[in-house]
Amino acid sequence: MANLLEMFATCKRDGSGQLPFLHQFVMCCSSGTAQDWCRRQMNDDLDTLPAQLHAMEKRFEDRPKQELPDGSVYTGQWLDHQRSGQGILEREDGSIYEGLWSMDEPSGQGRLCSADGAVYDGSFLQGMRHGNGSQSYSDGRSYLGQWAHGALNGEGQMHWPDGSHYDGQYREDDKSGFGKFSWPDGRNYVGEWKEGKPHGHGTYTNAQGDTWSGDWHKGRRNDQSTRRKAREGGHSERSDDNASTAVTSKAIDEDQDD
């Protein structure tokens, strides 16, 4: 029978294992590719998996607080010489991680409180934010959504202290794909994004309710597209000559790193 740790790592790699290590492994195996893989490896005898996991879990050893070579302090469970199970890591810089571990790295559900006051609650994989999670930043921003390999990736919602809000897609920490950005004064942009800026087709609405739909390039509306829309009877903004720069304001060009 395949090694259970190896099986879990495979499930994580195929995208089905963004669940707490061991405790919810059976749930992981109940879906899609992970289930098929596990059944093949276990000769269709998946019913024995809970007992096997329970036996392995009993091998976790609670040890006293230990100082690690890098100066951080770990308190929690071990599996042989690796941190595995539930544990707390206190780093020298003041940051604290509390949650599940696998093979000496945070994997599964956990909470990371950074030294600057930022807090992440959610899923980890091999020490990185991965899966679904929420992040509150030291500058007042907050994010709820998907992560991949430590970066904002997928669907998410970002809120700013001034009331601005983005709901849409991210790629490698940048707004990319389709999304809506709303300002507290009523303005909004709905459409395509690339590398953090409106890029492609989108619609901008100003505070007075006037709209302009057309093509955007790196955060600025395409003037040629504006004239084309006017000729075709489309809507163009009649009172907001600064629309081309409105969507590149500080509210949109934020630094999204934590």
UniProtKB/TrEMBL annotation:
PANTHER family: RADIAL SPOKE HEAD 1 HOMOLOG. Residues 199-258 are annotated as: Disordered. GO terms for cellular component: cytosol. The lineage of its organism: Eukaryota, Sar, Alveolata, Dinophyceae, Noctilucales. This is MORN repeat-containing protein. Keywords: Repeat. Pfam families: MORN. InterPro entries: MORN. Residues 215-241 have a biased composition (Basic and acidic residues). It comes from Noctiluca scintillans.
